[in-house]
Amino acid sequence: MATAWQIDWEHRPPEEAALYNPAFCGELLARSVKAYCGSIDRCFPLPLAFVILPLALPPGTRRALPGKSNTTFETWAAQHEVLLSEIPSTVLALRPVTREALLFLTQHKALAISPRGLALGETPLRLSSKRTSTSTEVEEMQRTARLLGRWFANQANPNSILLAMGVQP
Fold it and tell me: What pTM was computed for the model?
């Protein structure tokens, strides 16, 4: 039996195709990478790309995130253990979506993948913070993606972020 991610685009349920399309999910990943690389002079660790969508897409998770990037991840994780217990399964469920988004971004040269991680590509996306034709929900996801990039840049070690979420690096 084929999984939802093995079904051709024209046969996917419209809601899944709209929410999980590579362009939209890629935009969220690109916002995180841009914020991360703008905060710290390093490439965005590739494993962290797989936790951006599980944290940014579900409203419950997104709204539980801190409002500022100077909060330590370990402190926040200790206060949200129940919420984080669902993250590993969400990471696995959204792994094909993240892969499609990364492939989309690299094919369009918006992101570059190197052994050091992810960086903005030769033709990065134009990521305006102001849009007139978007919903509040989409704006929240975009803000969350930027926050996650800045927040992850302020943490000492990417592996500690993954371990706090129960994801093996």
Answer: 0.89
